[in-house]
Amino acid sequence: MKTEPRLYQGFLRRLVYDVNITTAVIAGVGITVLVLLTGAEVAKRYLLNAPSGWVLEISEYLMVFGAFLGMAYAMQVGAHVAVDVIYLRYSDQKKRIADLVVAVLSLFFWALLTWSALRQFFLYLARDTKSPTVLAVPLAYPMVLVFVGSLICCFQGLLMIYDAVRALGVGSGVVRHPDQPKEERG
Fold this sequence. Notes:
Layout: H1 6-47, H2 55-77, H3 84-87, H4 92-127, H5 140-170
């Protein structure tokens, strides 16, 4: 019987999952603030005829905040976009292969985005680039969110690859979430 290395089975997986959940909660708070801020701006604009010049920019940053900090959790729980119509027609073996291909492509995408975000961050930092708006926010700060969110997605992608390879090797295709109770064997 094959077993996972203990460190990967417990600590690293738990760390990635905990980071995903924490950033998802933070993203949820950001999205809640976005909704409240947008609602207040709509009321202020149309009821009091007194729009603010800064709400749109803050809303844009909050959207980036929510999307990038919540994405790894969405990957973890399988809430990302999928074409189930095709996938459901596959045999179990083809599903495991498809899972591996998707995980590898996902990791490639997130790694590329992480690298690009890091390069852009340093460029913005070196040039002291600011947004051309009333707030003149240094653009390096929002780019940190893109970098951190993408990096967390890279770690989730690595877990997905590990699970997909393991499912191919084991043959069962069932990869248990750490919080899911173990099945009783009879």
